[in-house]
Amino acid sequence: MAGFLSVKGGYRKLRVYRKVEIIYDMTYHFTNRFLQKHDRTIDQMIQAARSGKQNIAEGSEASVTSRETEIKLTNVAKASLEELLIDYDDYLRVRGLQKWGQSHPRYKEMRSYAGGSRIETEYPTLLPRLSDEEIANLCITLINQATYMLRRMIERQQEQFLREGGIREQMMRARLAYRNGRKEL
Predict the structure, then answer these.
(1) pLDDT at 20
(2) Cβ-based neighbour number of residue 169 at 10 Å
(3) 3-state secondary structure 24-47
(4) Which of 2, 67, 123, 137 could join 100 in a cystine, given CB atoms 3.0 to 4.6 angstroms apart?
């Protein structure tokens, strides 16, 4: 007999998870390289980046039994990244560094690089060569891309909940199917 619980937890294959993992690694490097050793911002930025990554994983695993928890944790991941975005914005602003907008000559190239697959293998060797302004702007771009992807993911999770229901509804359908002599769902 087939079970009513679906196999979940393939978060490591998600493009957004891989992107958020890069954000975490870059934030760890950035804070340890450019912030004062006892600055509380180091811990706050690392924890926000970690929360983004961990909540994607936890939400994916929780989705087996709770779509509500999956949606909630995906939203927590997005909110954590938004918090991190503010930290990078603040870093640039208070130090008089430039935030690269669409009019900046390197913006389009950086946005394309951040959205491509090369970054996944190249970023560890790239980090030591980049300035604080370059890393902050690259992280801001990655965070914007990741939060966009997470918003889309939340929309899909909501649609899936509407289509399939939650665990209690799935359990009831499975139980009724079993009672009616159907062994598969």
Answers:
(1) 98
(2) 13
(3) HHHHHHHHHHHCCCCCHHHHHHHH
(4) 137
